[in-house]
């Protein structure tokens, strides 16, 4: 299993541009999460999903959108990029019956200038 | 509000010594705690977890201690190795019947192993 994969690894956006961060997991996990990590800080939850077709806001959802059309994929959309969205973005997943441990992807480093 | 905090932002330990990383939490309703390790340029990696009905749990070279009276969590790493150098995060959540558990992460402690 590849686990949780994220693309791209790095991206530079201009203010006002849009992009989608891709996240895929091959562990048949029901739960998926998007976090952002600012320098020297912990992770803050942006959005999460408990299954295909079901998403909910986390702690810092403003400026982002998500969809969950399949169990495997959980893309994160930035519509109008702002410098405050410069961060490292992590996707994670968790199985329904495997406890509460979340498995993380390698992250996407995004810079908005 | 709910928060998870760490006592020390950095910790340097001699290779072979034991290290202890501390974490304080404020939400007395939290009943599940996790320690994650994050190496530079990588995503967090699960180390060990503990439920609130336990005081101690041991893994391979790691032990987590939970003191619910003072809302304190610690991670002990025995016989530290260079590969243990990383940032360590504690995280907490309340277990829910609805599957909407959300982890709250602390700021992290950077552990540096001195050769």
Summarize the structure.
The complex is a heterodimer of chains A (113) and B (115). With 113 residues, chain A is an all-beta fold.
Can you offer a commentary on this structure?
The complex is a heterodimer of chains A (113) and B (115). With 113 residues, chain A is mostly beta strands. In chain A, 0% of the residues lie in helices and 50% in strands. Chain A contains no helices and 11 strands. Chain A has strands at residues 4-7, 10-13, 19-25, 31-37, 43-51, 54-57, 64-66, 76-78, 87-94, 103-104, 108-112. In chain A, strands 2, 4, 5, 6, 9, 10 and 11 form a 7-stranded mixed beta sheet that branches. Chain A has a 4-stranded antiparallel beta sheet with strand order 1-3-8-7, with no helix packed on it. In chain A, strand 4 (31-37) and strand 5 (43-51) form a beta hairpin. Chain A is globular, with a radius of gyration of 13 Å. Chain A starts with a strand and ends with a strand. The model of chain A has no long low-confidence stretch (mean pLDDT 93). With 115 residues, chain B is mainly beta. Chain B is built from no helices and 11 strands. Chain B has strands at 4-5, 10-14, 19-25, 32-38, 45-51, 56-58, 62-67, 72-77, 86-93, 104-105, 109-114. In chain B, the strands form 2 sheets. In chain B, strands 2, 4, 5, 9, 10 and 11 form a 6-stranded mixed beta sheet that branches. A 5-stranded antiparallel beta sheet of chain B has the order 1-3-8-7-6, with no helix packed on it. Chain B is globular and about 45 Å long. The model of chain B has no long low-confidence stretch (mean pLDDT 88). The interface between A and B is medium-sized, with 26 and 22 residues.
The shape of chain A is globular
Low-confidence stretches of chain B: none
> What would the principal axes of the Cα set say about the shape of chain B?
globular
Q: Please state the average pLDDT score of chain A.
A: 93
Q: What is the overall number of helices of chain B?
A: 0
Query: What can be said about the biggest beta sheet of chain B?
Result: 6 strands, mixed
Class based on secondary structure composition and strand pairing of chain B: mainly beta
What does the radius of gyration of chain B come to?
14 Å
Name the helicity range of chain B: under 10%
CA(first)-CA(last) distance of chain B: 40 Å
What is the helix fraction of residues of chain A, given as a range?
Answer: under 10%
Count of separate DSSP helical elements of chain A? 0
| End-to-end CA span of chain A | 36 Å
Q: Name the poorly predicted regions of chain A.
A: none
**Binned strand content of chain A:** over 45%
């Amino acid at each position: 299993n590849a686990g949780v994969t994220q693309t791209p690894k790095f991206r530079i956006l201009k203010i006002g541009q849009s992009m989608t961060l891709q996240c895929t997991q091959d562990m048949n996990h029901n739960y998926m999460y998007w976090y952002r990590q600012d320098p020297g800080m912990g992770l803050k939850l942006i959005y999460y999903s408990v299954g295909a077709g079901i998403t909910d806001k986390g702690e810092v959802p403003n400026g982002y959108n998500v969809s969950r059309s399949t169990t495997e994929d959980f893309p994160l959309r930035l519509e109008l990029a702002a410098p405050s969205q410069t961060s490292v973005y992590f996707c994670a997943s968790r199985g329904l019956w495997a406890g509460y441990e979340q498995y993380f992807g390698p992250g996407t480093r995004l810079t908005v200038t | 509000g709910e928060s998870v905090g760490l006592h020390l932002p950095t910790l340097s330990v001699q290779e072979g010594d034991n290290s202890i990383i501390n974490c304080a939490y404020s939400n007395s309703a939290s009943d599940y705690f996790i320690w994650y390790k994050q190496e530079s340029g990588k995503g967090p990696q699960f180390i060990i977890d503990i439920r609130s009905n336990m005081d101690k749990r041991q893994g391979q070279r790691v032990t987590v201690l939970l003191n619910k009276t003072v809302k304190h969590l610690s991670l002990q790493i025995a016989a530290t190795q260079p590969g243990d150098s990383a940032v360590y995060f504690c995280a907490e959540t309340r277990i829910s019947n609805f599957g909407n558990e959300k982890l709250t992460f602390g700021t992290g402690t950077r552990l540096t192993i001195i050769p």
